[in-house]
Specification:
four-stranded antiparallel sheet, two-stranded antiparallel sheet, alpha+beta, single chain
């Protein structure tokens, strides 16, 4: 890596992230009303539309790729090696402030807003007092009796299956970078995401998503 990095261009990975099951990424409880849902999804504070934070998607991609590369740190911590051959640290940056010669983080993950198609589809839910989401009630089952346990009722808000979000990821390309390897590494993470989950409660059926995208140069 040269001492002075020259930014050559950006690649853009843009497309649609579609929920195949309900998606839950928790939001703030500051605006709760008496009797309201105590587990809201994250929303834009102005439009009240749910969205996927770029930080959530970036963190999930990093975690998946760290496991695939065998780069998970002690006690499950993100990779901090900062070594020239580490694709995780090159693309996402070392987790901690360690000395390295990799240059700036390559990936920029934008917040993913609700698509216009899903905005039109979910609009009628507002008439039911629900802002573009669904309410899912769950309980735990006592294995000894086979009936619902006491005090275990949970009310979860989640974005329903079929909802689509607009995905945008920009990737910085500096002089000396292997463009195909960097973009291919991110695509590997997006592919793995389809076999995993995004957001919370994924092992209980939430957060199954598919991603359709195209890669282009944006200067």
């Amino acid at each position: 890596m040269p001492n002075t990095l020259r930014l050559l261009k950006h690649k853009c990975i843009a497309g649609t992230l579609t929920c195949k099951s309900g998606l839950r990424i928790g939001g703030s409880q500051e605006d709760l009303e008496v009797g309201g849902n105590d587990n809201p999804v994250i929303r834009d504070p102005v439009s009240r539309l749910p969205y996927i934070p770029g930080s959530s998607l970036k963190g999930k991609l990093r975690s998946l790729l760290e496991y695939m590369e065998g780069k998970v740190g002690p006690e499950g911590m993100p990779c901090t090696c900062g070594q020239p051959g580490c694709k995780v640290c090159l693309v996402f940056g070392p987790h901690r402030n360690v000395r390295h010669s990799l240059g700036p983080t390559r990936i920029i993950v934008r917040d993913a807003p609700l698509s216009e198609e899903s905005r039109q589809k979910l609009g009628p839910l507002q008439e039911q007092g629900i802002d573009f989401a669904e309410i899912k009630r769950e309980n735990w089952i006592d294995r000894r009796t086979g009936v619902a346990g006491q005090g275990g009722l949970r009310t979860q808000e989640r974005v329903p299956a079929g909802t689509k979000f607009d995905l945008t990821i920009h990737v910085r390309m500096f002089e000396g970078d292997d463009e195909a390897a960097i973009v291919g590494f991110i695509e590997q993470g997006l592919k793995a995401l389809e076999s995993e989950y995004l957001g919370g409660s994924g092992t209980r059926g939430y957060g199954w998503v598919t991603v359709d995208y195209a890669v282009s140069d944006v200067g």
